Amino acid sequence: MKSNGEKSYPKVRNSVDVPREEWTGVPVPDSGILRDLVLAARNAIKENKKCSNAGRYFWELTGSVMRCGECGVAMGTNHITGRDARYYRCTRRYGRGVGACTMSKNFRAEKTEAAVWNFVSGVLKDPERLRAGLDEICLGSKLRRAAILKRKSGVGSSGSPK
Ligand SMILES: [Zn+2]
Fold first, then answer.
1. Is residue 155 in a domain?
2. What is the tens place of the pLDDT at every residue in 125-146?
3. Mind telling me which residue stretches traverse the membrane in this protein (predicted)?
4. Residue 116 alpha carbon to ligand 1 centre in Å
5. Which of 6, 21, 97, 131 is deepest in the core (most CB within 10 A)?
6. Number of structural domains, the chain?
7. Ligand 1 center to residue 94 CA distance, Å?
């Protein structure tokens, strides 16, 4: 409702697809990531289902992305409809009561998401940092795999079978 009492309506924007012949190519800088690695990653997640409960939002940090700093469980969102405000809160404390976790703070979604996006986009814009992070992930994965193989083969296990 406008101040003069007139009824107001939300703006509606329509978009029309442009034919492919009229598309404009945009050069994309080399990320430094091998094409095979990208294709393998896409293939690995092609069956993934949407894991966030963000229906109305472009993205949010649920789906185990954001963790409680006190107990480590996934943070969930709390949408306060009347104020149209969103917060992240510890799901353990919310589900089991205040004695379950000491994290009493709720985090404003806009502020939290902006901070995370700044971090993520900073990494994406810095190929060296991105490569170092991926190397670290690959190294961690290799070490875990090696530890599993070592355990299964019995190499390094103490004591002898009886
Ligand atoms: Zn917690």
1. no
2. 888 888 888 888 888 888 888 8
3. none
4. 19
5. 131
6. 1
7. 9
